[in-house]
Amino acid sequence: MGNMVKLAAVTRRYSGVLALDGVSVEIADREFVAVTGPSGCGKSTLLNILGGLDRPDSGEVFVDGIALHAAGDDALTDYRRRRLGIVFQFFNLLPAMSVVENVELPLLFAGVPRRQMRARALAALDLVGLAARADHLPHQLSGGEMQRAAVARALVHEPALLLADEPTGNLDTANADRLMKVLAKIASQSLTTMVVVTHSEAVAALASRRIHMLDGKISHG
Ligand SMILES: Nc1ncnc2c1ncn2[C@@H]1O[C@H](COP(=O)(O)OP(=O)(O)OP(=O)(O)O)[C@@H](O)[C@H]1O
Ligand SMILES: [Mg+2]
Fold first, then answer.
1. For the chain, which residues make up each domain, given as ranges?
2. Which ligand 1 atom is the nearest neighbour of the CA of 15?
3. Ligand 1 centre and the CA of 19: distance in Å?
4. How many Cβ atoms are within 10 Å of 94's Cβ, its own excluded?
5. Closest CA to 110 of 57, 155, 64, 70
6. Rounded to the nearest whole angstrom, what is the distance from the C-alpha of residue 56 to the centroid of ligand 1?
7. Ligand 1 within 6 A of 43 CB?
8. Are 101 and 124 in contact (CB under 8 A)?
9. Ligand 1 atom 30: residue of nearest CA
10. How far apart are CA 21 and CA 102, in angstroms?
11. What own/partner pairs with CB < 8 Å and gap ≥ 24 does 179-183 have?
């Protein structure tokens, strides 16, 4: 088994604020890592850099063997489309498309043949317990269902790396519990490496490893 993620001395500065201060970390294939730490410590900045949504000012970032710090815009777009799944705190489903059409989007971007798309999207919805909601519009779902649909969309193209930023942050306890069961199932049944930022002790406890951050640095993990 190799390392899905390798960061070496990564620094990111925002107009005077050192959001990441020389972060070095390795995450093995298929690990499920929880990133914890107080507000403002750099968790989302770390996730954005892993997701190719932001670039470090210095240091090196490798994901699945790709040097993200040196990649051009086209290579980063290709990386995001083919190897990455992202779940944000606020669901980000497209309101005019049905649930199953939302889940098909990553397959469309990855160039999967149309005739395979529906079956794969329905299988991903089944994994998160939402097969019966496939034809609903997002506004017809509860918050917890929307977030599980967002997880199905992030996973449908079988990404090498799944990133989630506070996926239970907007959910009540019952829905957070249900989403956690989905994350645990993904960790045990799929090949995807998972990095989940969370303030929830219960979510962090699901992970195989915890990385704690403080003031832009990894304090332990
Ligand atoms: N676009 C930006 N412009 C300026 N400063 C930023 C920007 N993004 C983040 N920062 C600053 O960088 C630091 C780290 O921010 P980051 O969003 O990574 O924190 P976080 O750990 O995700 O916090 P939270 O738990 O509140 O989401 C903070 O001090 C923040 O104010
Ligand atoms: Mg954040």
1. 30-54+74-220
2. 4
3. 6
4. 12
5. 155
6. 14
7. yes
8. no
9. 40
10. 37
11. 179/144, 179/147, 179/148, 179/151, 180/206, 182/127, 182/128, 182/129, 182/148, 182/151, 183/32, 183/151
pLDDT at 1: 65
Closest CA to 116 of 103, 129, 127, 135: 103
Q: Report whether residue 67 contacts ligand 1, using a CB cutoff of 6 Å.
A: no
pLDDT digits (tens, 9 = 90+) for 22-80: 999 999 999 999 999 999 999 999 999 999 999 999 999 999 999 999 999 999 999 99
Q: Nearest bound ligand to CA 48?
A: 1
* Sequence letter at residue 161: L
Residues with CB under 5 A from ligand 2 (ion): 44
**Nearest to 147, CA basis, from 163, 169, 126:** 169
pTM: 0.94
Fold (topology level) of 30-54+74-220: Rossmann fold (3.40.50)
Give yes or no for a contact between 171 and 15, defined as CB atoms under 8 angstroms apart.
Answer: no
pLDDT for res 13: 97
Give 173-200 pLDDT, tens digit per residue. Answer: 998 999 999 999 999 999 999 999 999 9
SS3 content of the chain, % helix, strand, coil (to 5): 40, 30, 35
Smallest CA-to-CA distance from 106 within 133, 129, 78 is with 78
Rounded to 10°, the helix 99-109/114-127 angle is 120
Ligand 1 neighbour 148 (Cβ under 6 A): no
The C-alpha atoms of residue 215 and residue 105 are separated, in whole angstroms, by 37
Burial class (CB in 10 A: 0-12, 13-18, 19+), 161: buried
Residue the block writes with tokens 């890592």: 33
